[in-house]
């Protein structure tokens, strides 16, 4: 990263608010899907519907156990638009508002392959402060520098709704 220090900036009680969000759900068992192709298809769909993408890619990830004890995990790729797209067709879903209150937050600045430290920072802070978290996260890919393979990403993990 050419002398730039890696940074994690942590804070609590943040609210993530997204508007006019186009979503595409990917089961984690489907390895063959190429994220870049899906994102390009989403961007093309947004343009074809007369809208404009606003802001960066957002990735929602959730993992939990079924009643049978099986892992149920998936990712939802999300892009915000300048206006709500009506009559969205499958495989897409459109939400006018995604609001995630009371989340733990970490801004990550460093190499792409070390993004997991942002999630670990949030998990560690939650552990040390007896905070229960949901088994889900939102990652906003704010910026990427392909020259030095660094990135800036915002990670939000909501507190457990039961606590």
Report the portion of residues in β strands. over 45%
Please give the order of strands in the largest beta sheet. 1-3-2-5-6-4
CA-based gyration radius = 17 Å
* Overall average residue pLDDT: 90
Low-confidence sequence ranges: none
Distance between the termini: 40 Å
Tally of DSSP helical segments = 2
- Estimate the helix proportion, in percent: 10-25%
Query: What does the overall shape look like?
Result: globular
Briefly note the structural class of the backbone: alpha+beta
| Number of DSSP-assigned strands | 6
Task: Output the helix-strand order.
Answer: EHEEEHEE
Q: What can be said about the biggest beta sheet?
A: 6 strands, antiparallel, barrel
In short:
This protein has helices spanning 35-48, 116-128; strands at residues 7-27, 53-65, 71-81, 92-111, 136-145, 150-158. By secondary structure, it is an alpha+beta fold. A 6-stranded antiparallel beta barrel has the order 1-3-2-5-6-4.
Q: Would you kindly provide a written description of the structure presented here, covering whatever features stand out?
A:
By secondary structure, the chain is an alpha+beta fold. Helix content is 17%, strand content 52%. It has helices at residues 35-48, 116-128; strands at residues 7-27, 53-65, 71-81, 92-111, 136-145, 150-158. It has a six-stranded antiparallel beta barrel with strand order 1-3-2-5-6-4. The longest helix has 14 residues, at 35-48.
């Amino acid at each position: 990263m050419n002398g730039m220090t890696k940074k994690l900036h942590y804070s609590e009680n943040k609210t993530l608010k997204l508007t006019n969000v186009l979503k595409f759900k990917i089961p984690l068992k489907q390895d063959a899907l190429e994220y870049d192709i899906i994102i390009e298809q989403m961007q093309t769909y947004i343009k074809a519907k007369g809208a404009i993408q606003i802001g960066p890619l957002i990735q929602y990830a959730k993992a939990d156990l079924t009643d049978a004890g099986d892992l149920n995990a998936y990712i939802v790729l999300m892009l915000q638009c300048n206006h709500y797209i009506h009559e969205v067709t499958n495989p897409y879903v459109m939400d006018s508002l995604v609001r995630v209150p009371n989340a733990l937050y970490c801004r990550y600045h460093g190499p792409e392959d070390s993004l997991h430290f942002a999630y670990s920072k949030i998990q560690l802070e939650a552990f040390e402060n007896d905070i229960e978290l949901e088994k889900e996260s939102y990652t906003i890919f704010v910026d990427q520098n392909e020259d030095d393979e660094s990135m800036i990403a915002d990670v939000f993990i909501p507190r457990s709704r039961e606590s």
